[in-house]
Specification:
4 helices; alpha+beta; Nucleoside Triphosphate Pyrophosphohydrolase; about 170 residues; four-stranded mixed sheet; three-stranded antiparallel sheet
Length: about 170
């Protein structure tokens, strides 16, 4: 099944739909969301993208990130993808949104109007191995250190979104 993303203006006005790969090949601005989940110790949940992903495989990133479908709110999409990728549910709070553009390699671009949500989660995770190869919690201090030592282990968009998150908080 062909996946589509919602193409938008910088003011989040819907301009239409585009096949996901075409949008990423051409760097077209589209809707996206990112979810940051934390456990009771304040550690962030990271997921490692599955080896079969078409870009950025086997790289660490935030708990969940994806694209809303046509007619779906950002929050509905975030909750859907938490269930699809990690097999979990959590209450989420919208924190901010911003636009970024990142070269993700292989002549592909993420150019996204990204809504960032946070939540708390400490239960059992049931991975969808087509999407995620593993998860782990990490302190913000250890994450900063690891990102400095091995930036190639992390997705390009996670680096950008995490910096924006820290700027807001």
């Amino acid at each position: 099944m062909e996946e589509h993303v919602v193409i938008v203006s910088e003011q989040d006005e819907v301009l239409g739909l585009m096949e996901k790969m075409q949008a990423h090949e051409n760097g077209i601005l589209h809707r996206a969301f990112s979810v940051f989940l934390f456990n009771e110790k304040g550690e962030m949940l990271l997921q490692k993208r599955a080896s079969g992903k078409y870009h950025s495989p086997e790289r660490w990133t935030n708990a969940v990130c994806s694209h809303p479908r046509e007619g779906e709110t950002y929050l509905e999409a975030a909750k859907r993808r938490m269930k699809e990728e990690l097999g979990i549910e959590a209450d989420l709070t919208e924190k901010f949104h911003f636009i970024y553009k990142a070269d993700v390699g292989q002549n592909l671009w993420e150019h996204e109007l990204d809504y960032v949500f946070t939540g708390n989660f400490s239960g059992d995770i049931h991975l969808n191995n087509d999407e995620v190869s593993e998860t782990r919690y990490i302190s913000m201090e250890d994450l900063d250190r690891e990102m400095k030592l091995h930036p190639e282990h992390f997705t390009e968009w996670f680096k950008i979104i995490l910096a924006e998150y820290k700027h807001h908080f």
